[in-house]
Amino acid sequence: MALFDKFNKLAQERTALIQAEPSPFGTRIDEIYTPTEGRIGQWRVVLAGTNNYLGLTFDAECIKAAQQALEHEGTGTTGSRMANGSYGSHMALEEELGDFFQRRSVIVFSTGYLANLGIIGTLAGPDDIVLLDADCHASIYDACRMGGAQVIRFRHNDAADLEKRMLRLGEKARDAIIIVEGIYSMMGDQAPLNEIVEIKRRLGGYLLVDEAHSVGVLGANGRGLAEELGVEDEVDVILGTFSKSLGAIGGFAASQHAEFDLLRYASRPYIFTASPSPSVIASVRTALRSLRTRPELRTQLWDNARQLHKGLSALGYRVSSRPSPVIPVMLGSPKEGVAFWEALIEQGVYVNLVLPPASPNGDALVRCSVSAAHTPKQIDQIIAAFATLRDVFSTAAQVS
Ligand code: PMP
Q1: Which of 162, 221, 271, 399 makes a 20 to 30 Å CA pair with 289?
Q2: Domain Aminotransferase class I/classII large spans what residues (predicted)?
């Protein structure tokens, strides 16, 4: 078999679904005008398929900070922090994140994916057991594979199933690592962290929470789900990213454990990749300040999320039960999903298409993500586009 033959099936599946541009996979966005508007081919669209929760990608202060860093520190670090050294701004960001999350140690990584690989893949070795929510992000699965830990999946958001599996472990449960997410990226639902913390108190274990989609979104100060539920003290490691509410790229891990910084010397995804560019660090530091000092962004985000959720529910679409900045709309077969996604672009709305197995129950879904930067009028535009498609796709969407 030739080297690339193994991809034939994948290629056939893709061409069977998509014959022309725009394609829902790796969509070409020709121009970006604002955090919420762009152009795809001939269509000017409202962007509702990003993770730009606080809308900070065009924030004037963030852009100015990044420009200044470009001028003063150059375009890139050209090396890893372990081999080539850290810039003062890397350390400053780690201190500022430590202050924000009230944790002794913070390690910054070049992406959120690498933060998960670098922390989970190093902490969870071949002698360790990881209890993983089945819907955890691919980076968490990859990290477990990299570290060689024994992985036990429990049913998504099912604390009773977690407990059952921990009880089966007996004494070993004391040292097991439990990993969940604050907000899950496909369905927008939240981990039952109170119940999980209660199980941890009884049976032991370490708790890692990936707050990639919940930092800046949940909690009185925007620290995520653990803050919202008042259980931060029970979280051993917070994982997160700069690529969503902080509007740039990079990732981090924060912990109160005294030995946490030792991971820098053992974590290959920290040691063997270049550190984030100074301009990225500068914009993230500024975005973090905005996250802290402008709670009105979070209020606006939730107002927008509620408006969209209410509008789509009223149209009879099958949406998530609770409003969230991530709102999935369940559709029919993958083919119908693709057609719906294309028709939405023609109506001036860009969302993300998710196909099985990434979507549950064999249904395609479109994932709408809301930003604080959406105006109420733009949210109405999104709802109006769904209203127009309602009758055309009534069977696929099973609208009432
Ligand atoms: N964790 C979760 C839960 C995510 O959803 C993502 C990205 N979608 C990541 C980690 C990876 O983050 P990044 O894109 O910054 O690498």
Answers
A1: 271
A2: 49-385
> Are 123 and 31 within one domain?
no
Q: Is residue 81 part of a domain?
A: yes
Angle, helix 193-203 to helix 159-169, in steps of 10 degrees? 20
Annotation marks residue 244 as catalytic = yes
Q: Is 118 in the pocket of ligand 1 (CB under 6 A)?
A: no
Query: CA 130 to CA 132: how far, in whole Å?
Result: 6
* Distance (Å) from CA 117 to ligand 1 centroid: 11
Question: Number of structural domains, the chain?
Answer: 2
* Active-site residue identified among 244, 277, 324, 359: 244
For 22: left if phi > 0, alpha if psi spans -120 to 50, otherwise beta; the answer is beta
Whether 352 is in the pocket of ligand 1, judged by its Cβ within 6 Å, is no
Query: What is the model's pTM?
Result: 0.97
**Residue ranges of the chain with per-residue pLDDT less than 70:** 400
pLDDT tens per residue across span 11-61: 998 888 887 788 888 899 999 999 999 999 999 999 999 999 999 999 999
Instruction: For residue 310, indicate whether it is catalytic.
Output: no
Structural domain ending residue among the three candidates 227, 260, 291: 291
Tokens 């100015």 belong to residue: 64
Closest C-alpha residue for ligand 1 atom 15: 112
9 as an active site residue: the answer is no
The domain of 38 spans 14-46+294-394
Q: Is the shortest distance between the CB of 139 and ligand 1 below 6 Å?
A: yes
Query: What pLDDT score does 225 carry?
Result: 98
**Residues whose CB falls within 8 Å of the CB of residue 172, separated by 6 or more in sequence, listed in order:** 129
N-to-C CA span, the chain: 50
**116 in ligand 1 pocket by Cβ < 6 Å?**
yes
Model pLDDT, residue 3: 95
Kindly state whether residues 389 and 256 are assigned to the same domain.
Answer: no
